[in-house]
Amino acid sequence: MGSQLALKSRIASTSSLEKIFNAQEMIASSHIARARDVALNAKPYTDAIFDAVQALVAHTHVSHPIVKKEEDNPRVAVLALTSDRGMAGPYTSSIIRETESLLARLDEQGKQPELYVYGRRGSTYYKYRNRAIADTWEGNTDQPGVEIAETISKALMEAYMKPASQGGVSELYIVYTEFINMVVQKVRVLRMLPVELIRPDQPDNGPMTEDDAENASPLYAFEPSIDEVLDAILPKYIQSRIHECLLTAAASETASRQNAMHTATENARNLIDDLTRKLNASRQASITQELTEIIGSADALNTKEE
Known about the structure:
Largest sheet: 5 strands, mixed
Subunit structure: F-type ATPases have 2 components, CF(1) - the catalytic core - and CF(0) - the membrane proton channel. CF(1) has five subunits: alpha(3), beta(3), gamma(1), delta(1), epsilon(1). CF(0) has three main subunits: a, b and c.
Keywords: ATP synthesis, Cell membrane, CF(1), Hydrogen ion transport, Ion transport, Membrane, Transport
Protein name: ATP synthase gamma chain
Number of strands: 5
Strand content: 5-15%
Function: Produces ATP from ADP in the presence of a proton gradient across the membrane. The gamma chain is believed to be important in regulating ATPase activity and the flow of protons through the CF(0) complex.
Main location: membrane
């Protein structure tokens, strides 16, 4: 059994940690409602522009980078959305684990992934392991704005539109955490570009093949041309998808931090209770020993007097 001084020291330090965890939980609780509403409100616009792009490319004979890129370019871009701060449980570690799995799969396919990272935790992780990073962004991962989404989308679009001879990429992937509810957040891998075509009459049968696209009858007329229309849509499409992923990842990070801090607070309180019981037991043992010594001394004096 530890000494009373050591137990008191542990109780004091654990109490300080419990206050910090509880404060972090309260802060996350105050932010989660707004983060959830912002993420859910952004989803309809992103879904609408994605459906519009799919409808355009599914019903027209188009050869545009938004649906097809150079086949002989093995370079692909992977964007991982991590967090700036810790105390969020397995949030960042889950993203890193899924990113590593995606990079391994791409390597097995003979592709050359180029890593982009948003969030200080992920950037530090890969820099510490000397992993080559094409670009990084940091700041406000729990409350991302339109500006950061625009900055990231411009960098990725520039990499995607470059020809292979200039170091361009042929595919864009995003690894992020989708907000399902306060308890469930799932790590997702999204291939943002090129857009996968889904059969409009049989949406559950997987991506549309080239033959399906050729047989689809044109339903749209474009002015001035389809290439100029898609060139105008492409930046908006990329930015909207990235912005939605940032917002749902922010909601997931806040929810994960609230859950982690709630668990940490409960664990700290349980540890304080356990240490308090040990301290009381130590005090009781000390008092019992002192009483035993006093009684023994008194008996010895009485025996000596007799």
